[in-house]
Amino acid sequence: MSTVDKMLIKGIRSFDPENRNVITFYKPLTLIVGANGAGKTTIIECLKLSCTGELPPNARSGQSFIHDPKVAGETETKAQIKLRFKTAAGKDVVCIRSFQLTQKASKMEYKAIESVLQTINPNTGEKVCLSYRCADMDREIPALMGVSKAILENVIFVHQDEANWPLQDSSTLKKKFDDIFSATRYTKALEIIKKLHKDQAQEIKLSQKDLEKLQILKDAALKLRQCITQDHEESERLGSKMQDLDRHIQDVDAKIRQTEAILKEKRKLDDQVATKTAERSALFKEQQQRFEDLAEENDDPDEDLRKWNEQFNARIAVLQDKIKKSNRDIKDIETKSNISQQQINKYNGEVGKLKKEAEIYESLKKERDSTIQELYRQHNLGSLPKTPFSNDVASNHISRLNSRLKDLERNLDEKKKSMDEELKVAWNLYGDSSDRCKEVEAEKRAKLEIQRGTMARKKEKENERDKLERDISDDKMRLIDQKEKSLY
């Protein structure tokens, strides 16, 4: 709590400018008494002037407040007020205000010439003097005391000519109470808080919209990344499958060549079968002819006939062996032909399947190329070579798209973090503003209660004053009656 210790007065009203008049204020109470004109009111005026810089009422701009130079027999009078007090923090401070009143040819000129604050350095113990303008001093002293200027003027150091301000009109009274309770300042603060609350709510809405847009972009980026990953995996799978198909095609080509060789051998065997069949038919005809010839009588000797018969039987045996061998060869060739035909049919089916897979692969390659072109166009990644792309070129483009996607995700994460921080700050400010609004509303309600209580006390005082006036009137009437009775 701030307290007043001492005050020095020189050259103020009836105080001599040459003498140093010092008054000490004792705790907890100091009574100032004296005859009329002794300077009791002047002390209160000096306290008010030192703390607020406000001249007392009816001071004619300070000319009647400073000691009259004519009384001192001088053309110029210098006045000074020194006030020593303890601040709210318990620090000793001396306030010095100096004035000057000069007698001109036709008028007197008042001037405030110096305003100084004097403190003691706690480290060195030396006095430190700071010179201020009057306006700065008027703001600095109430701040050091921890009391507003309105309270110092209207509550603590009230001039006797202004002591009846609670009985003034309602507009003046409202202004006084607003100044005392700093209602105007709190109203402005409340308006600023409401405006800040509105701006922050708008910023929060905009931030939420931006966050929603960023979330949409993030979802699209994630979906795009999934598509690129799937396409990359599909491309790798198709590439691996294409390599397998190439190897399979090579195997099928080898089998086809092998089958063609088998077919060639089959045709050769077929020719051989036809030749052997023709030979067998010729031999059969020859044998038939010989049997027919045997039916005829032969004049050859028996020895020749037996010899020829043996040769013929040997020849028949040889031919039968050849026929049997030819039949076996024909069966073997037919078996091999059937097997070869089955293999050919199987290879033809595999070739058709491979052609279908090759068509699907080409379709997927086209889809991959079109997807790469679309992504490049959407994200302005530059020009592309003509399609179709080779696997190496497609892999390079997919790597570039993955890099671009990572950059987008990184930017999105950074923006999201920034938006989260801004949103957190905005919500904190919103919470602080709401708490401050509640405090201001509570203070406002408390001040309104105090104002209503003051108005009620004012009403009571007015009622007491009316009652006293009626009592005084009654007493005067009784005195008049008594005087009249004493006269008669």
Automatic annotation (TrEMBL):
What does the UniProt keyword field contain?
ATP-binding, Cell cycle, Chromosome, Coiled coil, DNA damage, DNA repair, Hydrolase, Magnesium, Meiosis, Metal-binding, Nucleotide-binding, Nucleus, Zinc
Query: What domain of life does the UniProt record list for this protein's source?
Result: Eukaryota
Query: Which residue range or ranges hold the Rad50/SbcC-type AAA domain?
Result: 6-219
A molecular function GO annotation: metal ion binding
- In which broad location class does this protein mainly occur, judging by the first location in its UniProt entry? nucleus
Annotated Basic and acidic residues bias:
457-476
List the subcellular locations: Chromosome; Nucleus
Coiled coil (UniProt feature): 309-425
* Subunit and partners: Component of the MRN complex composed of two heterodimers RAD50 and MRE11 associated with a single NBS1.
Q: What is this protein called?
A: DNA repair protein RAD50
Q: Which organism is it from?
A: Lactuca sativa
